[in-house]
Specification:
Layout (H helix, E strand, L loop, with lengths): L13 E2 L4 H6 L10 H24 L3 H28 L3 H28 L7 H8 L5 E6 L9 E2 H4 L1 H5 L2 E7 L2 E4 L6 E2 L4 E6 L1 H11 L8
Antiparallel strand pairs: 1-5, 2-7, 3-6, 4-5, 4-7
Length: 221
């Protein structure tokens, strides 16, 4: 059976309607033969991003970000389904089964991370949110949310050209653009006015980046 090119959800602009995760959860599961490497790569990317988004949802008391976490959790379930199907169809010998068992362990660990992120956003329904916000603020690396001003030199510039990470130590983990999201934006992702960025790093790095994105600094140094 010929493998199809795997369509990752990262680095692309995609609509984020309310309850998107519910539509994804109840959509029909269909197995398509794709590259194991592509499946594991997306599972790795989701497991890295989803925890940051879950903490962001609680820290900023943001239901929209929580919705994205729920969507990514469902997405991870479907990737795990695909990789299990691939393993069952690919195993022909005892040696094949032993090699595929290791892949399935990695996939299961990644799904466990996404399930934990789902548990974190459930805290938005409880009374522990103020306490958690104070705890998160004491971490060495923090999560911040900042909007890009139309006066910023970042407008219509690619992330790679801005050298955000090398100049400030801050990592842009997601971009919110109107009703759309870009997860794990790439170096060729263009920043536009009024984008909301979720970034991770130190307070010192955020201070410089925030001034630049708000038009108070002309360049990042």
């Amino acid at each position: 059976m010929k493998e199809k090119k795997h369509q990752s959800i990262f680095g692309i602009l995609q609509r984020a309607p309310k309850d998107k995760w519910k539509k994804e959860e109840f959509s029909e599961l269909e197995y398509e033969p794709v590259s194991v490497k592509d499946l594991l790569t997306e599972m790795k990317d989701i497991s890295e991003l989803i925890i940051d988004l879950a903490y962001s949802a609680v820290l900023f008391n943001n239901e929209e970000i929580a919705e994205e976490v729920k969507f990514l959790e469902v997405r991870m379930d479907k990737l795990n389904y695909d990789i299990r199907m691939m393993a069952m169809l690919a195993a022909r010998t005892k040696e094949d089964a032993e090699q595929l068992a290791g892949i399935l362990q990695v996939a299961e660990a990644a799904e466990s991370i996404s399930n934990a992120a789902g548990d974190i956003v459930k805290m938005l329904e409880g009374k522990t949110r103020p306490i958690l916000s104070r705890i998160f603020q004491k971490a060495d690396e923090k999560l911040f949310r900042v909007q890009v001003s139309s006066t910023s030199k970042a407008c219509n510039q690619r992330i790679g050209d801005l050298k955000v990470e090398s100049e400030t130590g801050m990592r842009i983990i997601a971009v919110r653009r109107g009703d759309y999201w870009i997860y794990n934006p790439r170096s060729d992702t263009t920043i536009t006015a009024d984008d909301w960025l979720i970034v991770r790093g130190t307070e010192e790095g955020y201070e410089d980046l925030s001034k630049f994105l708000k038009g108070k600094l002309k360049v990042l140094e």
